Amino acid sequence: MSDDNTPAQADDGFDFATADAEALKAEVQALKEQVLRYAAEAENTRRRAEREMNDARAYAIQKFARDLLGVADNLDRAMTAAPADHAESAVKNFVVGVEMTAKELLGAFERNGLKKIDPAKGEKFDPHKHQAMMEQPGTDVAPGGVIQVLQPGYELLGRLVRPAMVVVAAKDAGAGPDGGQGNPYAGGEGGESGGAVDTRA
Q1: Comparing C-alpha atoms, which of 114, 128, 116 is closest to residue 156?
Q2: Which of 32, 47, 128, 197 has most Cβ atoms within 10 angstroms of its Cβ?
Q3: CB crowding 83-110: b at 16 or more within 10 Å, else e
Q4: Which residue has the higher pLDDT, 86 or 23?
């Protein structure tokens, strides 16, 4: 009479203990790789969230700054239209007050990372910071240079808030296929390089 509780013996000599150990090792290795992968994903998520939070903190005033640019523009216009010399002290004091207000506003801009873009005459047109409103023949400015600034631009910590609107010296691109002037900012035969340059920043 045989004992039913006796474990069955392998007739082929296969070592189940060794096979189980190998399977467990493989499973442990797979779990280690999975843990490392999850840890890397968690670290990437943490870094991305931290970067987004820093960006949000740095550029939180962007909309507010954009709304204040109109105030800065009006103060500039007021100073441009102000009389240089006036006999009345009240007018002089008013002009000085406007100038001080504009200076304080620009100082507040700079303290918060908002920088004015006001290219000098002759500075090369930069499509990343400038917007060409028109072209004019420039006798004392090289082709592609800024002749006049119609409205200054601003950038916040390197990020463009508003491009500077400028008048650019026309480039002599030569006659086009139809006999007219070619686009000086376009590529190809009449331009300087590959694709067209977008004049809007």
Answers
A1: 114
A2: 197
A3: eeeeeeeeeeeebeebeeebeeebeebe
A4: 23
